[in-house]
């Protein structure tokens, strides 16, 4: 097994890190918290220009045609910088759904524009009092003539205010279907809800929202399979993001532990504290690209790091709190721990 | 060792609880402020403390000559547990460490000036021990107190003075004798919080509330506002912490969160099925409830040890603090894990589970394993004083 990076991979990492160091400083990340739009145009433009928005989209559709491995490297940097960007919802999940099941017309219409950052698409998936599984999709799509009427409520739809299309997971007579829905369509109502990770999240109500059959992605009843397949790719990238966040959080903590003196010694000289950091680094360095493991690593790292920073980690002024909140929010989003455990258990035990 | 309250103690606990139910006021009692709900920081909360004073519940353990009832500290523990269960302001600094230190070491002038005000809930204190370089290393205070004609001139900075923005008086440790050993060069002072040389700067926290840092610029303190003997500051601080375990930290808020979570899980549904039927949820709840019962046991243990007189229950108290603060964080984490993606919604957002209580509590409890003696400090205390292991720092 070759664990060394190729020159190209290292270049992508360096380029991404350099760009984010300038365009996703913690001051910028703070500014974007609870912002209705949630991302800065300058960052988005940079990501497009460097080819990051099209990274995983095939060259035939205007992208860079890279693999999930390159994607994970980029996501580690996105996580390190806590970059406020609709990249995941648009360039990973929405593009992924279209690539997996979209018609040629749908791919032609959207993939190129997603890749160059011109269009943002976002999935409308989760619902109140419903889980991450197929049974969680209750929003109704009732067949009516050559189209459907959508009725129901979606939650935690990220960056919806900037979206040109929503990819709505809905229940039809055939099962779960995916629809491209214009958020400006009649009957769509959006409301921003504040959440732990403080990214732009929306609750969206659908009241007799009309969609045509041409806006369905994939064959009737194939929506859940498509979604699940794309999620399996998505969580790999989020695992990378968690590792990035955890490693930055730890790095800053190690620096602090080397400088901060109590009882006439730097904090790092106390074994009780240095062992916390050693444990965290083992998890981070070893971390396979599994969201279950990496998100727990991220959360646990932010917890022990807060312990080392002491009181200042509790203040808004220090950046630690941003990692602390994001780590837990990421763990609870895009398949949480119980859901991932069940998937893995099924894979191991039920096959 | 008797683990139950005596009939008289139990009757007092019932009396306080009934009174708190009768005097329920959502403006005064707010569970969503988590640990900050113990502060008397608004006019309504101060009026509430006046009512407690009128009930004769302030200074119960003080000697009669200072207006107390000379009853056991356990009554103050019972009172604070009841207050914190209802998220009402608690008795603490005035009745506890400050009042008791003044009684033991204060001049007649300071006793006369402050003790009646404490009993009548007419004064709120801020406590200034921590500094940028004096966190876990509490004796490392650097705030300078230079001897001048008729008093002391204070210059420097304090951190984490939670009550600085509303208190009337500041109870401050400062270095009067820098040439002496670290623990022997500190003295205690009382300073009016509106002193023009004090500058209070807000430090917003990751929870709902704010704490403060306070800057001292040529703050003159007359000799008579030096508390006790010069150079005995750290010893008085340690003694007060050792003697005053009863009002230090309460279990009720954690027990309350467990209760609230259990109530919610009983009713909640996911994908139309009762959440309580999920075996993972059942297991998590069983663990939380068990650990909450253990915390209750540890709390009873240190209260019994404190009641029995003799040496201060330092070890019991450290074990309780270590276990309970970690449990407190775990309950919040587990609650969010049970709630899943909806757990990320903040207070005030459309039907956030339990009105966003645990999203907020996850943040608000982050500091519990740090403030009031970090978990690592508690472990050092247990290792050295209980197990007799050598000092290793």
What does this structure look like?
- The complex is a heterodimer of chains A (351) and B (393).
- Chain A has 351 residues and is an alpha+beta fold.
- Chain A has 11 helices and 10 strands.
- In chain A, the strands form 3 sheets. A 4-stranded mixed β-sheet of chain A has the order 1-4-5-8, covered by helices on one side. A 4-stranded antiparallel β-sheet of chain A has the order 2-3-7-6, with no helix packed on it.
- In chain A, a hairpin with a 2-residue loop joins strand 2 (140-144) and strand 3 (147-158).
- In chain A, helix 1 packs parallel to helix 4, helix 4 crosses helix 7 (223-259) and helix 7 (223-259) runs parallel beside helix 9 (291-309).
- Chain A is globular and about 80 Å long.
- The model of chain A has no long low-confidence stretch (mean pLDDT 94).
- Chain B has 11 helices and 10 strands.
- Chain B has helices at residues 7-22, 43-54, 74-85, 94-105, 108-119, 233-243, 252-267, 279-307, 314-339, 357-364, 375-386, and strands at 125-128, 144-148, 151-158, 169-175, 186-192, 198-204, 210-222, 226-227, 269-270, 273-274.
- In chain B, the strands form 3 sheets. Chain B has a 4-stranded mixed β-sheet with strand order 1-4-5-8.
- The model of chain B has no long low-confidence stretch (mean pLDDT 93).
- The chains are: A alpha+beta (351), B alpha+beta (393).
The fourth-level CATH homologous superfamily of the largest domain in chain A is Butyryl-CoA Dehydrogenase, subunit A, domain 3
Residue share in helix of chain B: 40-55%
Q: Can you list the strand order of the major beta sheet of chain A? A: 1-4-5-8
Number of strands of chain B: 10
Domains of chain B (count) = 3
Number of helices of chain A: 11
Structural shape of chain A: globular
The biggest beta sheet of chain A is recorded as:
4 strands, mixed
**Quick one: CATH superfamily of the largest domain in chain B?**
Butyryl-CoA Dehydrogenase, subunit A, domain 3
